[in-house]
Amino acid sequence: MINLVQNELLKLISKKKLLVITLIMAALISLFTYAQFKETERTMERFQTSDWRESLELQINDTKSRLNNSTFHSDEWRQQLEIRIQQQQYYLDHNINPREPGAPTFVRLFLESAVHLLLPLLIMIIAADLVSSEYSLGTVKLLLTRPVERWKVLLSKYITLILTVSLIIFIFGFLSYSFSGLVFGFRGWEAPVLMGFQSEGTILNIADVKLVQQWQYLLMAFGLAWFVTLVVGTLSFMLSVLLKSTAAGMGIMLACLISGTILSSMVASWESAKYFFMVNLNLVGYLSGSSPPIEGMSLLFSLTVLSVWGIVALIVAFTTFTRKDVF
User: Fold this and answer.
1) Mind listing the pLDDT tens digit for each residue in 258-290?
2) If you write DSSP's letter for every residue of 191-220 in order, what string do you get?
3) SS3 of 1, please?
4) Which of 33, 103, 111, 227 has the fewest Cβ atoms surrounding its Cβ within 10 A?
């Protein structure tokens, strides 16, 4: 098995897709670091203060003003703003800066934005190609004529996928910390972070709120990001087994991921949509206290839904690959 995995890793490296993904991440992280720097400058110029307490008070007043003067936005939008105001007020009352300057804070905020679309898209590029490329290159017959059982061949590819997911998450964290640290400084690992906020309509439930250090929060957030990325990778891996065309598999997953982003902001009244995997990808949002797309969803619920989708995808992939006729 070790030799099979080594062989798959060598094939993956020879395709240079990992290098391309690393370059994409480096470019995007540089872009978002610059955007965050300009946003910080704009906020200081707008509120004419560098004190985080005064700035947060002004942001709360500004959000309240937007709520009072706006009559055309949806109830979901108003609900999100009301929850955000209560969260910011809670941070203010407990004298905790929600955006402590430093690279770890940038990594936390960037990860919260990237977990439900950017990271799944990156792993999809690799997973959708793992098996289907053997068909398009004509190497599948050579692969299956070796004295190795089919399930072992597929398992070696799946282990390669797991290792790749872990490597991509590590590179994402390393580049985010390194690039943003050059701009914002490398301090902030022990900054306090509040987690456990829950929303019930427009009411913020603070019964389970806990104070943790930022490095603890990041550890949990990266664990959840790893799980989300692995589930999306597993679904792409299944499509790679079912379809001989890499482009078709990538197209289907791309459509699902983009539709998930759109559905998450539109499905508040469609309760059964909460069983779609793409509506459950923002697991890190449960840590930060973001409102779930559909009322009643929780971290445990989303973990269960994603686990079921991942297990079913694995069963379908292994069953199909071991019984499929290859001509």
Assistant:
1) 887 777 766 666 777 888 888 888 888 888 877
2) -EEEE--EEETTEEE-TT-EEEEHHHHHHH
3) coil
4) 227
CA dihedral 309, 28, 160, 313 (to 10 degrees): 10
The closest of 118, 115, 131, 149 to 237, measured between CA atoms, is 131
CB of 45 closer than 8 Å to CB of 193: no
CB 108 within 8 A of CB 98: no
CA angle, corner 166, sides to 162 and 171, nearest 5? 145
End-to-end CA distance of the chain: 25
Query: At CA 308, angle to CA 235 and CA 272, rounded to 5?
Result: 100
Bridge partners of 195, per DSSP, are 210
139-155 residue pLDDT tens: 777 777 777 788 888 89
Q: What DSSP element (H or E) covers 46? A: helix 17-47
